[in-house]
Amino acid sequence: MSHVLVTGANGQLGSELVEALRSRHGPSGVIRLDLQPPPGPDGHAAGGPFVVADVRDREALADCISQYQIDTVYHLASLLSATGEQHPDRAWDVNMEGLKNVLDLACTHHLRVFWPSSIAVFGPSTPKADTPQKTVLDPTTMYGVTKRSGELLCRYYHRRYGLDVRSLRYPGLISHKTAPGGGTTDYAVDMYTSAANGRDYTCFLEPDACLPMMYMPDAIRATLSLMEAPAEALSVRDSYNVAAFSFSPQDLAAALQRHVSNFACTYASDERQQIADAWPASIDDTAARTDWNWTPTYDLDAMTEDMLDHLQEDERLREDEGVRG
Fold it and tell me: Which of 5, 53, 213, 287 has a CB 3.0–4.6 Å from the CB of 70, allowing a cystine?
């Protein structure tokens, strides 16, 4: 039986990836690991083991891998872009030491590894439109520095030790299930939540700050598709560009106003705008489409309709619970 370990399992990506993996491997086949137990009686996925540990603790990771006979690790634990700028030393420590521990243990225990990179690896010298797979990489944040360093480390372990480690450069990820975790693109989830709850929103980016984005169901599908691809089909061993669509805050506000007519968005950009300025507006993901047949399902309008349906239903359920209470 296959046993999968997901680090950073309480996070935005981890919570939903665990659900998808458990539908394939069963509750006992997916082990969650994070610094704290999941919120609620059992978090976002029913049943199954949960390990409280720090990815910087190599011994704890090794014990978990041995105890549960892990064969694949989805190593998602990291500090994100805005949080990383507030705590750069901790971002380097968590993001790099955690990855190094996972890669070393993967070599020892003959594991497969998935590790997420990000559009944060790009920078002001990178082409803004249709950013190619191979291009100038000059990240301007500690998060981006750790992601590019991690890409190089993954490629080194593949070349030096033959480790099967795979990676995606995620754009901004949007989900109705879990709260964002300190990223520059998190404004989108906040804007959706405000509109669904009948509130206006003040955006921390400028109205025309266009960035690549992806709806979480597509991100999960891209992750699993990459991990299912035959090794000989993969031409990229640092990290694949992967794309769905791009939009700006004013684009998202307009999409929301087609469903919530009284929604209004104002703008008060802060230091996160400087991070966004260094990132691409759109991504060329030809390599992913060619090597493992990647194609997204959702566009902005389809995502907006689905996000609002779920968020408004959640709000109605909270109101009903309040009345019953």
Answer: 5
In the block, tokens 């999968």 appear at 4
* Catalytic residue chosen out of the listed positions 143, 192, 215, 240: 143
Q: What is the pLDDT of residues 95-147, one digit of tens each?
A: 999 999 999 999 999 999 999 999 999 999 999 999 999 999 999 999 999 99
Give CA separation, 154 vs 8, 141, 236, 286, in Å.
18, 20, 11, 21
For residue 118, give the nearest of 243, 224, 295, 18 by alpha carbon: 243
Asked about 143 being catalytic, the answer comes back as yes
Q: Are residues 148 and 138 in the same domain?
A: yes
CA distance 14 to 169: 16
Q: Which helix (H) or strand (E) holds 6?
A: strand 4-7
| Cβ proximity of 145 and 91 under 8 Å | no
Residue 310: count other Cβ atoms within 10 Å of its Cβ: 15
Whole-structure pTM value: 0.93
Does residue 260 register a pLDDT over 60? yes
Q: What is the C-alpha to C-alpha distance for residues 67 and 99, in angstroms, rounded to an integer?
A: 20
Residues 6+ apart with CB under 8 A from 215: 173, 174, 175, 244, 296, 297, 298, 302, 303, 306, 307
Domain count, the chain: 2
Note the Cα 320 to chain centre separation in Å: 32
DSSP notation for 216-270: HHHHHHHHHHHHHS-GGG---SS-EE---EEE-HHHHHHHHHTTSTT--EEE---
32 & 87 share domain: yes
Domain residues for the domain of 224 are: 4-173+215-241
Burial category of 179 from C-beta neighbours within 10 Å (exposed 0-12, middle 13-18, buried 19 and up): middle
User: The tokens of 294 are what?
Assistant: 């990647």
For 177, residues 6+ apart whose C-beta sits below 8 A from its C-beta are 15, 16, 44, 216, 310
In angstroms, the CA 302 to CA 267 distance is 25
